[in-house]
Amino acid sequence: MDEITRLAATLGEHLQSINAQVTTAESCTGGGIAEAITRIPGSSAWFEAGYVTYSNHQKNLQLQVPAELFARVGAVSEEVVRAMVSGAQRHSGARFAVAVSGVAGPDGGSIEKPVGTVWLCWGVGEKLISRREQFAGDRDEVRRQTVKAALEGLIQLVDAEIPTQG
């Protein structure tokens, strides 16, 4: 079992332990997080929905990301991924969510947002945690690292919600 599949399986076990669901809102990974999750048999018990919103128009249409954000801060920004998480949670009803938007390359980068720049956001209820990453490598490697980071962050978020014994 590869590392991403192992992470997805761990996420599923942890979500099932608290009877919770997750949703994904993806841009630069093109559905890669949802694909990793659905590799796991029985994932329908804890995976609610995946939104692949590659264009700004679809981010606005499917997730209600305010159109003015794209002009003001760009699609690869903290504000956009936070809005993506909130929209995915609202539409799916899932308790947990992750959103990603980045510059996977090989082109499309800028001085402010070079290739490999990725914003991730995780949400549980009203709590949102966002982080900017600068991944190295080619397009496939940036996307793989993004999927891995998204799953790791979800596991941490779910683990924080599991009641402790004693």
Automatic annotation (TrEMBL):
Residue stretches in coiled coil: none
Domain CinA C-terminal, first and last residues per copy: 6-157
Organism domain of life: Bacteria
Pfam short name (any one): CinA
NCBIfam families according to UniProt: PncC_domain (TIGR00199)
Protein name in UniProt: CinA family protein
